[in-house]
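Homework help board

Subject: predicted structure for assignment chain

Our instructor gave us this sequence and asked us to write out the predicted structure in token form, then describe one feature. I got the tokens but I'm not sure how to describe them. Can anyone check?
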Amino acid sequence: MKRLFILLLLSLLMTSCLVLPPSGEATLTLSYSPNPSNECYYDSYDGWVWTADITIKETNGVSVTLGDYSSTGYCCVTKMYSGGVLIDTYSYSASDVEDWFGTLEIPAYGSIYENNAHFYSGNNASGSITETYYGQDENGNTVSCTNTINLENSNKGNK
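My token output:
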């Protein structure tokens, strides 16, 4: 009887651990498809424009709300490079990011997507853009993810 009680107690302790709220910090990954992107065209207003799909995924079992948590108060900061030289930096608010993805909420082990996102490089016919997205996880930790999309010109720079 004593063994049965101990087994029952151990069973309850082990199963209760599985339903405790997540601890630790969320882990976000940012990816592009395709990367490098060579789907581009020249627009007389925006210059060179590339398209790719963006995915932000949470991989540690802790949900995240994207928001204006960067040190400069933005949700997304992008840096445009051409020939390895920083050309420009752009900052976007949480409302901009919500317009792109349709939500700011990333569930634990979940993802959000933007299909056919546009990347603009002005008159630079190739280059790269590094994006960083910021959020806060359900435990109050500020988290971020960063990646670079390479922009290759299949038109050989021809407008």
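Reply (TA_rk): Your tokens look well-formed. For the description, you could write something like this. DSSP finds two helices and ten strands in the chain. That's the kind of observation they're looking for.
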